[in-house]
Amino acid sequence: MRKVGIYLCLVVLVLFVIGPFIWMLSSSVKPEGEVLTKVPHLLPSHFEFRNYLDAWKSAPFGRYFLNSFLVSAIETGFDLTLGAMAAYVFARMDFVGKRVIFLILLATMMVPGEVLLIPNYITLTRLNWINTYQGLIVPWIVSVFTIFLMRQFFMSLPQEIFDAADLDGSGPMRTLFGMVMPLSKPVWITAAVIKFVGSWNAFLWVLIVANSPSYYTLPVGLVNFSSNVGTVYNQLMAAATFSVIPLVVVFLIGQRYFIEGVARAGIK
Amino acid sequence: MSRRVRRNLAAYLMLLPTLVLLGVFTIYPIVNSFIISFYDWDMMSPVKRFVGLQNYQHILADPLFRRAFGNTLLYVVCFVPSVLLLGLLAAVLLNAKIRFRAAFRTTLFLPYITSLAATGIVWSWIFNGQYGLLNYVLSWVGIHGVDWLNNARYTMFNLVLFGVWQNVGYVAVIFLAGLQNISREYYESASVDGASAWRKFRHITWPLLSPTSYFLLLLTTIEAFKVFLQVYVLYGESPGPNDSGLTLLYYMFNEGFSDFKMGYACAAAYVLFLIIFIFTLLQMSLSRRVNYSA
C-alpha cells in the first residue's frame, strides 16, 4: 500500500515536470485552428508537421543552430584542454606560488558572474569584438569549476603511474594527454556535459554581445522569434521543440555522468 | 638550466593560457568594475567623471531600486523554501526501494538542462488567462481562472512556480545523493527499536542530511537573488505589469544596457554582490547547527 502512495506522488511530480514539455510537443503538431482552445486537447485531429518547416523558414534557425553548435563545441573543447592542463599543474606539479595562485582562482568563483558583465562588455567594445564569434566564445573558454573538478580527480590517482611515466622520460603534457586523461573519462565527460549545456543555454551574454541575428545563438534567436510571431503558438512550440532537442540528446547520452557529477558537487 | 627551474617553467607554461584568460576576463573585470562604480560614465564619451560614492547613494535612494530589492527579496523568500521542500520530498520518494528510479530522476532533471528561453515561451502560454493550461487545470477543481501575466498581484507567483519547476529536479538529485550517503545501519537499528517512519526522518535523516540541506540553502538563495531570465522570458522586455517583476539584476541590466550608465550599473552590480554576501554571512552563522559528524 505504501508503495502505491510513493508511485502516485512521483507520478504527480513527474507530470508537473514534463507536462509543459508534453504540451509543447503536442501543440507543435496542431493545425492552426486547434491551438487556441478553451479546452485543450492532447492530440490534434491530424498531425501538422508543416509547422516545423514553417517555423524553421520564418527565421534564420539554421544559422542559430550553427552558432550554438560552434560556440558550445569550441568553448567545451578549450575548456577541457586548458582546464586539464591547469588541473594537472595544480594537482601534480610543484612550482613557486602554487598555493597563492590556486587560492586566487578559487576566490573568483565566489564573485557572481554579473559583476563581470559590464567591464567585459567594455573590454569587448575596445577590442572591437561586439558581433563576433571571438566575442561570444573567448571570455568563456576557461572555467575555474572545470579546473577544480579535474584537479580533485587527478589528485586521487596513484603516485605509481606518475613515477612510471617519469621513468619513461614522458613530459607532463604527454603524461597528461596520453595517460591521465584516458584514465579520467568520467570526470571530463561530466565537465564536458556541464560546460556544453551551460554554453548552449547561455543567454544574457549573447544578448549583449550579438546585436545582429547573424550571431544569435538558439536561445536568443528563439526569444526574438517569439516576440516577432506573437501568438502563432504552433510554430512557436515547434521552434521551441527543435531548439531543445540537441541538448536533450546530449543530456540523455551523458546523463549518468552529468547527474552524478552534479550530485558529487553537492556532497563534496 | 637546472631541473628545478625547468619544472617551474613547464608548470607556468601549461598554466599560461588559463592565467591570461582568467586575468583578462575574470580578475581584471572584478577590479575594474569596482573602480568604474565610482565614476559617471556613459561608455561613449572619453571622459570619465569621478563621483565618489554618488552612484551608490543614488541607487540606495532610488525608489525603483527599492522596488527591485523588495521584489527580489519576496522571490527569495517564496522560492527557496518551496523548492527545497518539494525537492526534499522528491528525494525521499526516490530513495525508497522503487522501480524506474533512474527514469524518474532523469525526468525530474530535464527542466534544469533545457534553456529558459524555450521553456519560458511554453510557460508564458501556460499562464495565458484565456487559453492557458494553468486555468484549465484549476477548472478541474472548480477554481475560476485569472489572467496571470497581466495582473501585478500574481507576478511573484508565476516567477516562483516557473522557478520551482525548473529547479526541483536539481535540488532532488543533490538531496538524493545526501540521502544515499546515510548508512543503512541507522535505520535498521531504529527499526529494531520500533521507530515510526516520521521518527526515523526526524531523528536520523534530517540531522544527517543537514550538511546537504545547508549547501542547498546557500546555493538556492544565491541563485534566487540573481533571478532575471525568468522575468525576461515570461514578460518580454518589460519587468512585468507595474514593475512587479523588476528584480535587482533586471535593474542592473536596464541601467547598463538600456541607459548606458556604466558607472551606475557597476555600482548596482556591487550592491547586488554585497546583498548576496550579507545573506551568505547570515546563513553561515547558521552553520553551527549543521551536523558534520556523519
Quick take:
The complex is a heterodimer of chains A (268) and B (294). Chain A is mostly helical.
What's the overall geometry of chain A? globular
* SSE pattern of chain A: HHHHHHHHHHHHH
What's the gyration radius of chain A in Å? 23 Å
Number of E-type strands of chain B: 2
Number of strands of chain A: 0
> Considering DSSP H and I runs of 4 or more, what fraction of the residues of chain A is helical?
over 70%
* H/E topology pattern of chain B: HEEHHHHHHHHHHH
Number of contiguous helices of chain B:
12
Low-confidence stretches of chain A: none
Structural class of chain A, by secondary structure, is mainly alpha
Protein name (chain B): Sugar ABC transporter permease
Family (chain B): Belongs to the binding-protein-dependent transport system permease family.
Pfam family, one (chain B): BPD_transp_1
InterPro entries (chain B): ABC_transporter_permease, MetI-like, MetI-like_sf
Structure report:
Chain A: It comes from Alicyclobacillus fastidiosus. Chain A: Residues 65-254 form the ABC transmembrane type-1 domain. Chain A: It is a multi-pass membrane protein. Chain A: The chain crosses the membrane at residues 7-26, 64-88, 100-118, 130-150, 187-212, 232-254. Chain A: InterPro entries: MetI-like, MetI-like_sf. The complex is a heterodimer of chains A (268) and B (294). With 268 residues, chain A is mostly helical. Chain A has 13 helices and no strands. Chain A starts with a helix and ends with a helix. By secondary structure, chain B is mainly alpha-helical. Chain B has helices at residues 3-36, 54-61, 63-95, 101-113, 116-126, 133-140, 155-180, 184-192, 197-225, 229-235, 248-257, 262-284, and strands at residues 39-40, 49-50. Chain B has a two-stranded antiparallel sheet. In chain B, strand 1 (39-40) and strand 2 form a beta hairpin. The longest helix of chain B is centred in the N-terminal third of the chain and has 34 residues, at 3-36. The model of chain B has no long low-confidence stretch (mean pLDDT 92). At the A-B interface, helix 1, helix 3, helix 4, helix 5 and helix 10 of A face helix 1, helix 3, helix 4, helix 5 and helix 7 of B.
